[in-house]
Amino acid sequence: MTSVTVTHRFAASAERVYDAWLDPSIARKFLYTTVTGEIVRCEIDARVGGRYVIVDRRNGEDVLHEGTYLELERPHRIVFTLRVPKYSPDEDRVAIDIRPLASGCELTLTTQTADEWAEDTRRGWAMILDVLDESLPGDVATCGAGLAQHAPVPRRMAVYLAELAETLELHREMLVLEDANAKLEDDVYRDLSASFRTIATQLKETADRMAAQNALPMGAHDETRWTDKHMKAFARFVHEQGALASVLRVAATRDEQMLASMQKKPE
């Protein structure tokens, strides 16, 4: 077994972050969700000894997540078990510790999992915390809190591009460089992977800087300077956010199907 720890800072208060894990209307938006799936069942019995059941429907197949609450201490600590029968008969123990800060809070999630699932587990929980962050605006509507709340998007893009670079680099290992076309392909993949890694590094650094702005003091604003130009720019930003989500949803569905076909064992 391996211990996995993920830490995330939120603009929202410790109480709101704590409550989100136990409120079905909020939990179904972030807990065990996938971009191509749909939460079709979310039941939470929020008491020590109580159980929860969350079902994510993925490509027509229901994936059950279930467990029991072992500790509930608002707003500081939640401990529960997690079992996903589709992937493993094992049961993990998940501990969430929430530390209130002058602005927002810091959440540390710790779980024990099988060695072979450690990296996937870390990535999965990091994604869940990013989605939760997007779901909970800060308690005080400041520009700094707004920046911090938007940090998960470039952070996720950085991870995505780093993994794309890794995939391209591994693809190069299969190329037979004595072939002229393979050599051309290798040159393109080498340059693209290097570019993606550079962009990923810059995006991560930018996301980290955004995430650190929770406590940025609110400066004086002259609201009379808000014009139609500002409104149209924000409208374009919102539109492109939705466009990005739409493209990624289609791309994720396509590549999930490709991955599934590659993972099928020969009869």
* Main β-sheet description: 7 strands, antiparallel
Number of helices: 7
CATH superfamily of the largest domain: START domain
Order of helices and strands: EHHEEEEEEHHHHH
In CATH terms, what is the architecture of the largest domain? 2-Layer Sandwich
Shape descriptor reads globular
Give the integer mean of the pLDDT values: 91
- Return residue spans where pLDDT drops below 50 for at least 5 consecutive residues: none
- Rg over CA atoms, rounded to whole Å, is 21 Å
| Total domains | 2
- Helix/strand-derived class? alpha+beta
Give the N-terminus to C-terminus distance in angstroms. Answer: 32 Å
Percent in strands: 15-25%
Widest beta sheet: strand line-up: 1-7-6-5-4-3-2
Helical fraction equals 40-55%
Beta-strand segment tally: 7
CATH topology-level name of the largest domain: Alpha-D-Glucose-1,6-Bisphosphate, Chain A, domain 4
CATH class of the largest domain: Alpha Beta
Plain-language structure description:
There is one protein chain. This protein is of the alpha+beta class and 267 residues long. It folds into two domains: 136 residues, Alpha-D-Glucose-1,6-Bisphosphate, Chain A, domain 4; 75 residues. 48% of the residues lie in helices and 23% in strands. The protein is built from seven helices and seven strands; from the N terminus they run E-H-H-E-E-E-E-E-E-H-H-H-H-H. A hairpin with a 2-residue loop joins strand 3 and strand 4. It is globular. The protein starts with a strand and ends with a helix.
